[in-house]
Amino acid sequence: MSANKSDNISSPELTVIVLNWNGSADLSECMKSLKNCGYPALRILCVDNASTDDSVEMMQKDFPEIELIVTSENLRWAGGNNFGLNHLGAELSDYVLLLNNDTIVKAGAFSKLVETAASKNAWAATPRICYAEAEHKIWYDGGLIGKLTGWIRHSGIRKHVRDCSSEVREIDYGSGCALLLSRECVQQVGLFDESFFLYAEDCDYSMRILSAGGSIWHDPGSIVLHKVSQSTGSDSPKKAYLKSRSIIRFLRKHCMVWTVWPFQVLISIAQAGWFLFRGYPVTAAAVFYGFIDELRNASQKDYC
Length: 304
Prior knowledge:
This protein is α/β, with parallel strands linked by helices. Helices cover 38% and strands 22% of the residues. It has helices at 24-35, 55-62, 76-88, 109-120, 183-189, 201-211, 237-254, 260-277, 281-296; strands at residues 14-20, 42-48, 67-70, 95-100, 103-105, 124-131, 134-140, 143-145, 152-154, 169-170, 178-182, 216-226. Helix 7 runs parallel beside helix 9 (281-296) and helix 8 (260-277) runs antiparallel to helix 9. The protein is globular.
């Protein structure tokens, strides 16, 4: 069953896949924003990644009209979204938007984003993502990947919205926090690479889009708010380790120029130094463990 789906044929059909894991309170707020986002041909699919909190019960009680599917185990980001895409199967809509459960969608955001994607014949598109606790401050305003350095970063991060361009433009990668994909994109590029344990799956998918001849566009006029690092914590060793591993995996897969590796070593040293300076020695060590373990194809360390 679909939710909030109308007979309005003037707008392309859009399915929003919200992936949730133990985020009941955030998920509730996200669902309320989706119901009020104003998109006329919207299907909402919540994929619960084997939560152990009351997420499933909350959805069944507070949002019974919204489609809910539950995995048998935590498939993480790539696997969970693949589960949702596979569930859609032949019912794949014109566009699919992958959305974090810790987001709040501003009214009109999806209409603007889909309009941009359609007008640019884009395979993927992203909104401007701002901090939920400071809506004037940008978290993501397009993704950048250094061709010679392999440096992956957000454009405009922590800047005031008035200091950033409102121009619709092509970008290097789309953030998985809120990532719009066309039907053609999913059919041509396929599913996400589940060998990425966590982080960089979106960068990998974006590179595959570009390699297949598709384009990725960013529309700053489409606004989504994000409660940053609700699941792992901004200074956690777990986040630092997993991000370090995933970036090295991404670089090994896509970036072959020799300049990438010296620069990545410098980035890792700088990151570790920053954590040490702020009093997080375990997190600093996790940066290097992630780097080395991925190069050695070592088993995953358990940072909790």
